[in-house]
Amino acid sequence: ITTSGHWFASWHLAADATCHVFPHRRQELLRYHSYISNLFNSIRDPGLVIAFNHAVRSLISSRRDI
Fold it and tell me: Average of pLDDT values for 22-33?
């Protein structure tokens, strides 16, 4: 994933699948999508946003108390 377009395309697929299995997570996923959308709109370099997203997901996946 190297562009915001790639990110949004893959995000929608992953979020739809997640919501199918965990419908109670829909609002959380919508809020994260909105947050990342705002970052893409305010930061010129999409690579920075994509790296941030990767770091957040790596941290969250390694923790059970967040």
Answer: 96
Q: What is the number of alpha carbons within 13 Å of residue 20 lying toward its C-beta?
A: 6
Pick from 28, 32, 42, 24: which is nearest to 7 by CA? 32
- Sequence-distant (6+) residues with CB within 8 A of 5 are none
Confidence of residue 65 (pLDDT cuts 50, 70, 90): confident
> pTM of the entire structure?
0.84
Q: How far apart are CA 46 and CA 42, in angstroms?
A: 10
Secondary structure letter of residue 60 according to DSSP: H
If one counts every other C-beta atom within 10 angstroms of the C-beta of residue 53, the result is 18
CB 49 within 8 A of CB 39: yes
